[in-house]
Amino acid sequence: QTSPTTHTKFGHYYDISKKMSPELCQSVKWHSFYLHEELSAEAGMRVWNMNSGYARLLQSIQRIISQEGFDGSDPQKKQRNVLRIGIQSLGSPLWGDDVCCSDAPEDPHSLTKFLYALRGLLRKSLSACIITVPAHLIQNKAIIERVTNLSDMVVGLESFIGSERETNPLYKDYHGLVHVRQIPRLNSLICDVSDTKDLAFRLKRKLFTIERLHLPPDLSGTVSRASKQELAGSTGLLSSGCGAVAMGNRHLDF
Amino acid sequence: QGKFTLLRDTRTDGSFLVHHFLSFYLRAGCKVCFVALLQSFSHYSIVAQKLGVSLAAAKEQGQLVFLEGLKSCLDLLFGEEEQPGQPSPLQFLSGSASDLRALFDFVRVSLTPSAPDSWKGPVLLVDDLSVLLSLGAAPVAVLDFTHYCHMFVCCQLKGNVVVLVHSNEDSEDEENELVVTSLCHHSDLILWAEGLATGFCKDVHGQIKIIKRLSLRQAAEQDLVQIYQYKIQDRNVTFFARGLSAAVL
User: Fold this and answer.
1) Domains held by chain B: number
2) What is the DSSP letter of A124?
3) pLDDT value at position A178?
4) Model pTM score
5) What ipTM was assigned to the predicted interfaces of this complex?
6) Residue B146: domain span
7) Mutation for testing the A interface, residue in B43, B50, B74, B180 having most A CBs under 10 Å
8) Which residues contact residue A38 at a Cβ distance below 8 angstroms, ignoring those fewer than 6 apart?
């Protein structure tokens, strides 16, 4: 059990039953990219040998980075801020990619090429990016491995809904497991690997908590411990963050 | 001299070996061509500084030729039209060529000795080869590239080649496994860093298998296999025999 103070140390409070207040949105400078509202291919856009949705997203990000000076091109800028990028459901059909639809996608390299180019953009600018990928939909596991290798930090969320763990008394306080699959090893030989490998999450109306999973004491002679091996077909969300800024916090409060 | 070394990692990150070889060869006075595909120049520079080598100085003196893959990719995608005489080393990304000839040409030009050069044997270092597959290169193209490099650097120039690949047991990435298996057969030395089968341990970060492929040169010879465990620290890596970690003794 984590002590209450760690909850207040990190994170922001939200209320998932309400929408964000408009004043909050207006006071902050933000950009959005919705593929289906983008204009058709700009004149002079070179052939990139990549899914056009990803190509346009890359161009949009690069444009924001250079126009807003996140690449250090404007030394006069007083306030140095970090550009935070969030990309939702990368790889899903919403981006025009069929990697989630078939085992042999039309262009299996689009997603990884996009991630590589994005990595380049992030490395040379003051920005951090968090991406969600519906890993449970991608049948070609080789692509998942490549996506993992191209990311700095990889965290998997495995929900208990629909799996046999939902009724397991071991997990009754939680909604799912958190798998830390990769942590960044930037600018250093060593990386900060935490001791804890068993983490579970709970989604409440106002807080998202991640806690260490403790096995209860084995009091009964017949109780058997549930195996912690991942179920092969479990529903899950895999989110990967590529960033110039290493994210090493174990407890993430959203 | 003339050795092809394969760095391989499974369930762990073997890049500490790349940092080691980079600073080792630079300190030895060799001319190094470093094809760095996965990380930025500053990342390697900061770690090299901890190991006592300045990459910026080496680059300035002409000892180190550094290809920053991420930057080349951005130049290709966002930059101006390339000059006809200077194709980008990562030209295969734009789809105009399906082989890695441009990349090999870059290596060849970097390591061909020019008259006033006083450096010792040339070295090619690649981190890491598996990325090329992710970027759309066919496994055959990757193997051709390594073969050309092997012939040119090891056989012709009597230099050394060190290449890092990732591999996982139960990996479903067949293309990658194909490349790794083929490279294992053609390597003189294999350094295989593996995460411990029992899971993470604070004092032992992994085990390294050192395979000297004596069978490659001599028909009747057996490969020599040595296994050590290691712990990575801020400025160096300590190796010890299995089970004899300082924490245990």
Assistant:
1) 1
2) T
3) 85
4) 0.83
5) 0.90
6) 3-199
7) B74
8) A56, A60
